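Title: Prediction job returns without error message
Component: structure pipeline
Severity: low
Priority: P3
Assignee: unassigned

Description:
Job completed but the reporter wants confirmation the result is attached to the right record. Sequence as submitted:
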Amino acid sequence: MFSAVPGPIGIFDSGYGGLTIFDKIRAAMPGYDYIYLGDNARSPYGTRSFEVVYRFTKQAVETLFNEGCQLVILACNTASAKALRTIQQRDLPQWDPARRGLGVIRPTVELMDKISKSKHVGILGTTGTITSDSYSLEIKKMFPHMTVTGEACPMWVPLVENNEFDSPGADYFVRKHLEHILAADPEIDTLVLGCTHYPLLIEKIKAFLPEGITLFSQGEYVAASLTDYLRRHPEMDIRLTKQGNCRFLTTESAAKFSDAASVFLNHPVEVEQIRLVE
């Protein structure tokens, strides 16, 4: 169905947030080739149903495979929570059992017991990620002694997507959700930024965060996990091209994506508009 010729690593997000993951992965593995795909025309995914998120994510993964990717990272917590398992268990075996799709939730969960001293962890995420209970279920499975509290922050992604993350208007929504989750469990000592957009709000969050609470941002840990994965799976590593190239694709306006991407990456990028596989 797809070409067996070695190809790039695909990185997918519903919008711009996955660029925070891409940036850390490329810094850790600069010699590899990458294709970043943002489904900006249909972003955000956070409030959409399981069925819709799965359908959109499947289309994006299939598009990246058609572009030659052998491995796709879902750099989107909502897609990882609502679509990854179905794609891994149902679609990949039919498409090509040798191809792989990986998410961002498991690499985060694996570190929770080591980072949290109180064993009380808070997850800040989209409505979709929080209602899926993916973090709670994964943490409870791995570390049954831990307590997990989730807080949906539906306005945080629009603040980032509209470049309002550093505005005074963001203060209200950041303070509101931090106060709410810490009131729900005062013993929380670790807060996970469970959405790839949220690192751009990190200075705002720190300003309202009490001392003694660790803020966990996923990027460098996902990058380290991917590096380790390829070390343990040389059969996948040899299927990845390594010329240091990168392409950026979006379902929205290329010019609009390029402007926004420069905020996340601190440098301009060339972008191609694309239609996803239906």
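Comment from assignee: result matches the submitted record. The mean pLDDT is 94.
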